[in-house]
Automatic annotation (TrEMBL), chains A, B:
Alphabetical list of SUPFAM superfamilies matching this protein: Thiolase-like (SSF53901)
Gene3D superfamilies named among the record's database cross-references: Stage V sporulation protein AD
Signal peptide (from-to): none
Protein name (record): Stage V sporulation protein AD
Amino acid sequence: MKVGSQSWKFNNNVYLLETATAVGPLESQGPLKDDFDILYDEPYCGQKSWEQAESQLMRSAIQKVINKAKIKESDISVSFAGDLVNQIVPTHYVFRETNIPFFGIYGACSTSMESLLLSSIFVDSDNAKIALAATSSHNSSAERQYRNPTEYGGPKPDTAQYTVTGSGVALVSHKKTKIRIESGTVGIIVDAAQNDANDMGSAMAPAAAQTIKQHFQDLGLDPSYYDLILTGDLATCGSPILIDILKGEGYDISQQHNDCGKLIFSDDQPVFAGGSGCGCCAVVTYGHIKKLLEEKKLKHVLVVATGALLNPIILQQKETIPCIAHAVALCAAD
Amino acid sequence: MKVGSQSWKFNNNVYLLETATAVGPLESQGPLKDDFDILYDEPYCGQKSWEQAESQLMRSAIQKVINKAKIKESDISVSFAGDLVNQIVPTHYVFRETNIPFFGIYGACSTSMESLLLSSIFVDSDNAKIALAATSSHNSSAERQYRNPTEYGGPKPDTAQYTVTGSGVALVSHKKTKIRIESGTVGIIVDAAQNDANDMGSAMAPAAAQTIKQHFQDLGLDPSYYDLILTGDLATCGSPILIDILKGEGYDISQQHNDCGKLIFSDDQPVFAGGSGCGCCAVVTYGHIKKLLEEKKLKHVLVVATGALLNPIILQQKETIPCIAHAVALCAAD
C-alpha cells in the first residue's frame, strides 16, 4: 500500500523467500567472504570477456537461488533486473537463457533496491506470486566504460571507489520466512552539482538523505526504529556527508549508519574509499545482512541503495551527475 | 490481475488519462505530423547537444501532458521512464528537474510499452493514483552510440531503420476517459541468433511473435479481437517475418497488423526500412492511435513494442542480439 509521497508499506505478508550471491576474487578475500554463496578465484569467472564474466556471476547466482528455494524457474512470475554496463547487456544475456517474464531496469548502483522494491510491490499487491530481483557489477567492465581503459593504470585519488565484482539476487513471495519486507521508498532524482567521476560518494549522499528523510516522514518513523541504516555505496567519503545532511534536517543516524562499500573490504585491500557498483549493496545485503537478520543479531534494517546516474559523454559536455536512492526495510520475522 | 504466465487483465478501471508527443524535423514532415503536439524544426531542439535535445523532447512532452490533463506535477504518484542512450541519461536529466518518484527502466525500443504496462499495473492495483510513462529517442544520439560516428556518412543497407527523433508520454489513472487500458503482456527475452545492427526488424520479429502468441493464450483471445495489432518497430523487413512466424503457430494477423516504423514516415522520406527507436512507438501510439481510438475509428488495439537489446561492445565480441517485446491493449471506452 502506498503511503506518503514516495513510500509503500507492505501489510500483505511480503517475505524474502531466498537470496544468493556470487563474487569475484578480491571480494572472496574480504571480511565477508564466509557470507557469500559462490566465490570465483579469477576475474573472468571462466568466461572470455569481462561482460561475459559479469553474466556468469548473475547466471550462477540465479541458479543458486532457485536451488536454495527449492523452486522451479517456471515458478517465478516476474523479474526485475539490471546492471551497470551500457544497455544492461550482462543481464540480458543471462535472461535470454530463461523464460522468466522480464522487466529491465536501470538505476546505476541503486538497481539492487530498485529491483527489490518493485518485486515487493508486485508481491504485496498480488501482481506476482514469486518475484525475482537480480543485479550485478564487474570491476573491469565498469572501469573501462565509465573511467579509463582498464589497462591504463593511472593513479586514482583517495575519493575513488572500487566497483565490486559480484551479483546478488533475491526471491520475494508471501511464504513466511525469517525475513519480512516491511516497507520501501522510491527515490527522486537529486543533482548535487558534482561532476567528479572519481568521487561518487559525495555526489550520491544528498540523494540518499532525501530518500531516508522521506522514508521517515512517509512511514512516521525516526532513526531509532532501525538497528542499522545501511547505504550502498557512499563509502568513506560520502558517509559523513550523509550523516551531516540528515543532522541538519533533524535526524541523527550516526549511531545506526553503516555502508556496504565500507563493509565488503578491509582497510588493507586496495579499494581507495571503499566498494561501489550495483553488485556491492546486493551481495552485502543478500549475503551478510540476511545472515544477521536470520540470526536475529539485527531486528530492523533499512537498506538504501544509491545510484550515480553517470554517463561519460554527458560529463564531457560539462554536465553534473544526477543521483538517486531507493530504500527497502527488512526485519527479523517473529 | 495477473492472468496466465505473462499477462495482466486490468479489471479495475484503468484509463489513459492523457498523452503528449514531441517530435523532430523529419517526423514533422511525415504523414502523421498533424497528430503530434510539439514539432521541432531543427534537430538540436534549441539545445547544445543531441543528448540535451533528446532531454528537451521529453521535457516538453511531460510539460505538455501535465497541462493537457490539468494536473500538477505533484499529482503524479510514480513514473517509469527510459530511453536509448547509455545510462538513460536524457531521461535522468529531465527528471532531476522534478520531484516525481522515479523508476528508471531499460528495454531499448520496447521501453514505451514497458513503461505503459508498469504504469497500468500500478494503477490497477492501487499502487499509484496517477502514473507517468515516458520515453524518447533521438536519431543522432542513437546513431553515434550504436553504429558509426554520425558524421561518418557510410552508406546503409535497405534493411536499416531510421531512429525516430521524438518523445511520447502518457498518464494512466482510474479517471474515466475515452481510452481504457484493457490488458498487457510482459515479454521474455528471445535471441534469434541475428547479429546485424543494420537489420533490427528481423532480429526482433521472433520476440514480438512470442509476446503476441502468449497474449492470445493468457487472455483467451484470437487475432480477430483486435482491429489493429501494431508493432513498434519491425518496419518493412521484420513485419512479414512476424506474420509468417505467427501463421506457423496458427495465428493469422495479416489483416490486423501494421507497424509504427512504417506509419510514421512516407515512402519518399530517406528512412530505409522505416522508423525505429523507443520514441517511434510512443509518438505513433500516443499521437496517432490515441486520436483514432478517441474518434472510435479503432475499437481494440494491441500495441507491441519491440526492443533489440543491442550493445556494440558485445557485438564486437561476436555475440548475437537478444530481443524482447512488451504489449499493451487499448480500447475505445463506451
